[in-house]
């Protein structure tokens, strides 16, 4: 497997496909998945002649199941280790959900200062802050995330079945047909990772305030969000994020779910390509 070793000695698995002299697109996956989450986008952009790169976050997928560093700072630093090892320049970084938080921190603290990033996309992303606070009343109450932790600790395998079969893809909505293969693939990706990484990751994606990250980003940034996202509330994320960005634009999708990049890939891919080539 292709891996890079971080400064704290963690092996990070990555894919690097397509012409090495083509413009790179770097994909950052959501919790608790892996780079396989981006299959539909990776195949699409390969067909368009791009170089596509995607890594598994530490503790997720095929990366090392370590007991430390499951926080946004390490997530971003690990992504930087991959981009440095591959010497990626003029790259477009695209992140989904927790991966969107990873992109925001990577671009603000690593990508822009190193001159390696040209554009960014936040898809159903967690920034600026998911959890409800006095300053963020639109967020979700802490007990929601405590419930995630309790369900994961009680039976990770069952929890990782219930999430995709229900709210993640909107399969719990009337008239929406269940796609069993999609549910099983979500479960497969989740169960490849480490339980501790997934448990600690709940704090990372729910409690990390990324207001300053968003404010620091100056490259063109597209914020994409489904209006029926049951996982990351659009009012606490996308609507706020685009106002904090220096050069941001917002595109919302009526009726689409948190997992729209998979079940509505045809729509998302076309819009991603239009932004990248604009």
UniProtKB/TrEMBL annotation:
Assigned protein family: Belongs to the AB hydrolase superfamily. Bacterial non-heme haloperoxidase / perhydrolase family.
Keywords: Oxidoreductase, Peroxidase
UniProt entry tagged with the keyword Oxidoreductase: yes
Descriptive protein name: Non-heme chloroperoxidase
Molecular-function GO terms, alphabetical: chloride peroxidase activity
Keyword Transcription regulation attributed: no
EC number(s) per entry: 1.11.1.10
Cross-referenced InterPro entries: AB_hydrolase, AB_hydrolase_1, AB_hydrolase_fold, Epox_hydrolase-like
Domain AB hydrolase-1: 24-258
Class of the enzyme per the UniProt entry, highest EC level: oxidoreductase
Species of the source: Martelella radicis
